[in-house]
Amino acid sequence: MNQYQTTQTTDIPFNHNLIDGIIYEPLTTKQQLNNLKLSFEARTSDIFLSSYMKSGTLWNMQMVRLIMLKGEDPTDDLNLFEFCPVLEEIPNNDFIKAYPSPRCIHSHIPHNILIQSINKQQPCKYIYTARNPGDVMVSLYYHIISREPYNSSVSWDRFVQLFMAGKVPYGSWYDHVLAWWAQKDRSNILFLKYEDRLNDPHATIRQIADFIAIDLTEKEVQMVAKKSSFSAMKNNRLANGSWMKRTPNSTTQHLRKGIIGDWKNHLTTEQLVSFKKQYNEKTQGTGIDFGIENYY
Ligand code: A3P
Description:
alpha/beta, Rossmann fold, 4-stranded parallel β-sheet, two-stranded antiparallel sheet, globular, binds adenosine-3'-5'-diphosphate
């Protein structure tokens, strides 16, 4: 038992909760998920921002917030998690009920569980962001060793094994991303990639704005792009994740590098071979493409 009352699973070297076979972050409890299933009332105007961890969640929130504000700064003093609460961490339904429509709600819960928990026949909008598994693996490694609730000093080599076995929060990257990918043509789902957002932020801003039916002028698109850039977000205390507790020894911040291909600097030759093999096997025939062979 520790202060987060987490599950003790001998082969998983970080605090977590194992709920119905899925590893969750230490702050998510079975009771919260049960409450969600029983009492969450979705609204047709809800905008769900969904992703596997470390895929640019905060970035997505910042873009959506700025699009709603047509590029202007918020007049409230809410950080991104207060603007767009994390579904699996909300204390109770009254908390989320108090948010005015359109609500922006974030979740990493895998597709089938999320839909069962919240859908209840309400056609909410979902914006899903996927990022290539190599960069997610690196980013998640730093996240787990630097965020206080995990209380972990897992080695990189062990972490690579765990990630590839899906023994990390929210399970296998492949299961998570491919389940949303299979639904991407539904009219209420917008499937985006981190890499496209980085290469052409203006196009992503336009896609999101069209999806949530907000007209933006070219100038407004430029303001959104500028205020959601890596450097602008890093210097913005409401957007840089500084409210999330890190360990005293942490050397990284939530906005760490924000680049594509950092996994090349981390994987050993042997790890790279197994990573490529798994990536090719799991994505073959799905049509999903992150262009990762350009980084081999
Ligand atoms: P790195 O650790 O690779 O730098 P999440 O918010 O889902 O936890 O994702 C965090 C990752 O998204 C971090 O990746 C972070 O740097 C990156 N990120 C956040 N905002 C970004 C931005 N404006 N541009 C590029 N990357 C961004």
